[in-house]
Design goal:
The chain is 33% helix and 32% strand. It is built from nine helices and 15 strands. It binds nicotinamide-adenine-dinucleotide (NAD).
């Protein structure tokens, strides 16, 4: 049984507390939030659960094995560092830290203290992404050509980070999980319209072997869209995360260049076969992920969404930010 203290009970924190509560392998010992209204919500939802406004009550408690840090990004590093220094395993929200130096330092500290870091890359635990990974790993799509994602909605505006740091980590973590090989270069563009941080951004990522990825993130969209296209040499898929049924549709479609010596003689044939919608598991992602967190700690296993995974995502975000500042210049990784 892993005894967890949760810091941050704003928008996302309640989901963490509820899921930890529902697991056999974890127990929530205390919830902390510096906001009195957040603490009032904790007390209403869990009248018997201790709560505190000072994170030190969790960080220094001998009755706590692990700390979940569900606060804004700029606070992750300090809280995570204190938790590790006090011998606690950590579950940290995405993006892991505000920069790669901080991530690197936390990774080294955790290694020295033999503690687990898990970064909440929630999507990796959804039925949809697990199915997509199964399809790509198993070779069903063939060599990948592209990953193209549209992740847009109206808000929620964050105060400390841009839309890129808020929404792109989801796609970057998914790519990091399903694509073999590290990205080589990034081009990003974006604009600020309202509060001094980019609220619309576009990112192109170059991977080895002609694999290209594109992410469109936007807080100023009138409608919410969560659609990703993944094209492979053998098959292509469309993942619409907002529908209840047939979230993933796999198309047996493709293009083949059959012959031709010069460009004018090319024979292009189009394959237009069946579409099928694989079964996607419905289990709540955070339930699976937090169960895995406890399991990794108890069995001393390194999670695949560890500090290194968090660092890889932060590095891509940093590169994208540099590219945005240079209005779309190519930044090598
Ligand atoms: N994995 C996901 O899908 C997902 C979804 C939403 C948010 N998030 C991440 O969760 C984190 C929090 O986001 P949110 O939308 O819940 O933010 P939020 O602003 O709604 O909530 C953050 C809470 O943390 C509290 N807090 C801040 N600093 C604190 C401190 N030092 N000590 C104690 N309490 C403190 C605030 O009072 C607030 O209640 C961010 O890193 C965000 O990127 C992840």
């Amino acid at each position: 049984m892993i005894r967890v203290g949760v810091i941050g009970y704003g928008y996302w924190g309640p989901n963490i507390v509820r899921n930890l509560h529902g697991l056999e392998s974890t127990r929530v010992e205390m919830v902390c939030d510096k906001s009195p209204s957040a603490l009032a919500r904790v007390r209403k939802a869990y009248p018997n659960l201790p709560s505190a406004s000072d994170p030190l009550e969790i960080l220094r408690s001998p009755a706590i094995d692990a700390v979940a840090i569900i606060t804004p990004v700029w606070t992750h590093y300090e809280l995570a560092k204190m938790a590790l220094q006090n011998g606690k395993h950590i579950f940290v929200e995405k993006p892991f830290t505000s920069n790669s130096a901080q991530a690197q330092e936390l990774i080294e500290l955790a290694a020295r203290k033999k503690l687990t870091i898990m970064v909440d890359h929630t999507f990796l635990f959804t039925g949809a992404v697990r199915k997509i990974r199964e399809l790509t790993e198993g070779g069903a799509l063939g060599d990948l050509y592209y990953y193209d994602s549209l992740r847009v909605n109206l808000g929620l505006f964050q105060h400390d980070i841009s839309v890129l740091w808020d929404l792109a980590p989801h796609d970057l973590a998914i790519m990091d999980h399903i694509i073999k090989g590290q990205p080589e270069a990034i081009v990003a563009t974006g604009e600020k319209h309202l509060n001094g941080v980019e609220d619309v951004a576009f990112m192109t990522i170059y991977f080895p072997r002609n694999l290209i990825a594109h992410i469109n993130v936007n807080w100023l969209s009138p409608v919410k869209i969560r659609t990703t296209l993944i094209g492979g040499q053998k098959k292509m898929l469309v993942w619409n995360d907002l529908v209840a049924d047939e979230k993933i549709r796999v198309y047996d479609r493709g293009v083949q260049i059959t012959s031709g010596e010069g460009i004018r003689d090319l024979l292009v044939s189009y394959r237009s076969g069946d579409m099928w919608a694989p079964q996607v598991e419905q289990m709540e992602a955070l339930h699976v992920e937090l169960g895995y967190f406890a399991d990794c700690i108890m069995k001393n296993k390194t999670p695949f969404n560890d500090g290194q995974a968090g660092l890889r995502i932060v590095r891509m975000l940093e590169a994208a930010e540099v590219s945005i500042q240079k209005r779309g210049e190519l930044v090598r990784l």
